[in-house]
Write a structure and sequence with these properties.
7 strands; Rossmann fold; alpha/beta; about 230 residues; about 35% helix
Amino acid sequence: MAKLEQMDFDDTPVKYSTEKHVACVFLLDTSSSMVRNDAIGQLNEGLRAFKEQTLSSMDSRAKACIDVAIVTFDSEVNVIQNFTPVEDMELPELTACGQTVMGAALEQGMDMITRQKNVYAYAGTPYFRPWIFCITDGGPNDDYRDAAERLKWMESNKKVVAYCVGVEDFRVDIMRQIFNPDNIFGLKNCDFTGLFKFVSSSLAAVRTSTDESGAAIEVDAPATMFKIPLD
């Protein structure tokens, strides 16, 4: 059995434990500014589109091997859903309020990924490199520096792949301090439906990939999603 990292975890059975899994934690900004242009409503629709597309486009084994967690951050960090197969995913009704404690949310997401990898190791389940997928319309109000250093360490040691997608006037300058600049994107018109359909297709592509990194995929992005220039 693989050596487990130092992190508590439960021994919940893994569906299709001999099949290769991919885990993705969504870190979702639910601060008060997300009321602009009904971004929070569009975010809810995007999550619905993610589940619908994933369930309609994959067979039962594939659906059971994509494990999703949802964490929101405003003035607090809330674990809306621990890792569960997409087919068992419960859709929340997110609301917007408060500040933007993104640093704490990143720490929570990294803790959850570490625990999920321990679950896989305990069950003898192979897996692709897990994803962190962060969506924001601003930047952190809390101290994010330790989380940024930890994330850089996890990425450089091939323990996670992290992406950031920003809408409106999100803080690109700060996101570049936290995320790999190659993995930062903008999104026009709060098109979360298009974005989450893209994520669904991307995770499906990872699931069938031979690339161990879980990062090298080729899926057409929506026209509303664009790469942030590196300056």
